[in-house]
Amino acid sequence: MYTTNASRGLPRHRSRHLTERYTRWALRCAIAFMVIALLWLVLAFHLNGQWMFALLFLVLGASLGVVFTKRTLMSHRYIFPAVAGLGVFVIFPLLYTIGISFSNYSSSNLLSEERVRGQLLSQSYQEDDAAFDLTLYQEGDLTRLLLDSGSQRFKTSPLNLDNRESRQIGIQAVTEPPAGEALPMRELVQARSALQGLRLLTPDGTELRMAGIRQFAPMLDRYDVLEDGSLYDRRDDRVLTPDHTIGFFVTDDGERITPGWPVNVGFANYTKIFTDPDIRGPFMQIFVWTFVFAALTVVFTLAVGFVLASLLQWDQLKGKAVYRTLLILPYAVPAFISILIFKGMFNQHFGEVNMILDSLFGVRPEWFTDPWLARSMLLIVNTWLGYPYMLLLCMGLIQAIPQDLYEASAVDGGGPITNLFKITLPLIIKPLTPLLIAAFAFNFNNFVLIALLTGGNPDILGASTPAGTTDLLVSYTYRIAFQDAGQNFGLAAAIATLIFLLVAGMSMLNLRLSKVKV
Known about the structure:
With 518 residues, the protein is of the alpha+beta class. It has helices at residues 12-47, 51-67, 80-101, 113-121, 185-190, 192-196, 268-275, 277-312, 320-332, 335-345, 352-361, 371-399, 403-411, 416-444, 447-453, 473-482, 489-513; strands at residues 124-126, 132-139, 142-148, 153-156, 167-173, 181-182, 198-201, 207-212, 215-221, 223-225, 231-233, 238-243, 248-250, 256-257. A seven-stranded mixed beta barrel has the order 2-3-4-5-7-8-9. The protein has a five-stranded antiparallel β-sheet with strand order 10-11-12-13-14, with no helix packed on it.
């Protein structure tokens, strides 16, 4: 006798079979929809010339279809979202950055060569001594345009000034201005967008375009394409030759015509870091300071956290829970809030720090303009932000130390200092080592602190790129890519690649010290 589903009168095993079949069908439809969406992205990126992104989504869509359709790969379906996320948000940006580091990609070299050529060919210039003054006339409900060069006079047919599309209309020669009323300058300014779309064709075939707020003039195409692909500049009578080694059109005298296009420059960005004196000097100074900053931050935060954790383990200390809560509070406050508060406290003119120092010692340090004081301020603030983390680590490790060791030390006459350096510190330093390396790697790329507190200032004099004495490598890279006038993305990508190699090396060391096989 079958057990039936009460609502449908079906055997239970059959109902379960139908549920599983509908679930598989819905899953296949969802996968098909995702594959189609990814293929649409592939086509969209390909049509826009972004072949790397097109390749990324092509691989993602193909792998999605293969993994979720082959039964032999069923076990990989559960880990596929994590692997796909790793590829899209970690591996691809890394490979893309490395690829940019071998190019001259910058604000001057953004477009493709075809788009650069098209932009240059779209340029025009005004023919000398051939401008027509324009006047708008209102004839009842009609609006006409009068062009007058002194020797010639033309008028248009009635215009629709609400139409701002580009269009060509014919004009006719006249001897007298229209009988209507000339409109004031305010009306002309309001109609500017519509007038810019006009292409006025004279009876002899000359095309006139708007050349100023009150003028139309014959506008000639500036560049002509030669048989070898070069461009002839009709206005300046010169030839522009495409140079595919630097990504610019170049004149005979070596002048580069912007914009340019990205080209492969090999290891030029990497060699520039170490061979260009204007870049090598600031880079090495920032490189050394980055290591010093990260190392001193780890030392200071560990020292403060370890001492406080040891004091909190003192048996005779009353109110440990209250002290523990108060000491961990800085860890609960968002870092950017604490940084901005400290920025106000260290203000050279109105900050509380200078007010106290002035009242006690009669000094007002220039925290944001003196390089060494600015660096000291960074270490002070970062120690405040980082010591609660070390405090929590040390508290947990100290509590795991057997009390028998301290009792044996007391029998031998050991005191608190002896216990601190002979028992506590040696026993916790080994398990702390991987965490200290992780803290070093984090502070090596501590962009938020630099950006919010000093912005990298004060600047390094003589640097050809934006560089400050308090910059870390990561903030230095950001300033080159987004704050420099040239926005040299290729150079910034090369520095970012070096940062990745350094951090990856520290991560490998961390894994080795943690006895994890890689």
